[in-house]
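Lay summary. Proteins are chains of building blocks that fold into shapes, and those shapes determine what they do. In this project we predict the shape from the chain. Here is one chain we studied, written as its sequence of building blocks.
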Amino acid sequence: MTLTTPTSAFTVQPLSRADLPVDTVAMARALIGKTLTHERPEGRASGRIVETEAYPVGDPAAHAFIGLTNRNRSLFRERGHAYVYLGYGVSWLANVSSESDGIGAGVLLRALEPLEGIELMRRRRGRERLADLASGPGKLCMALDIHRGQDGLDLCGDSALWLGQAVRPVGEIGVSVRIGITKAADKPWRFFERGSAFLSGPRKLNL
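And here is the predicted shape, written in a compact code that computers can read:
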């Protein structure tokens, strides 16, 4: 199935579950350059994923580390489902479940390069500068209007929030430690597209 809008300058092929590695760290890397799209009544917004973080099985910094709860149950679904939670009581954060059904792990989507629905994103974010619209996990969710209502959606199915193939080749992928955590903070499980103007985090981690 090909999903397009009349104003789109490109065609995005949805990702199938088979396109996603059954390994959290491998998936975090594989998602760089792929697209994330949210279809809302007011229009479509989409972007290229340019930054991710892996939270694999056994990771003490992962929400799944404590076991299955009502809050984190989407992390234990088959790879390719959305896990959306409120971070620090302030911002919604979007993750992709990343292992087999019943095994809890996920990939945090940290930043997007806006592609479609840019004026929608600007209104939602109250910002004009393109590089500020989705350059962080909370900004990303605000720009694409992602919240608790999208928790558990199948991103490889027919939901309004879905993952798509890359619209152009991905650049060199960089690797760094993760941002804003204290447990397992030395793990090189953050991935990003080098040279992107849309990354979050300190400059020293984006080289």
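What the prediction tells us: The helical segments are 24-30, 118-125, 137-144.
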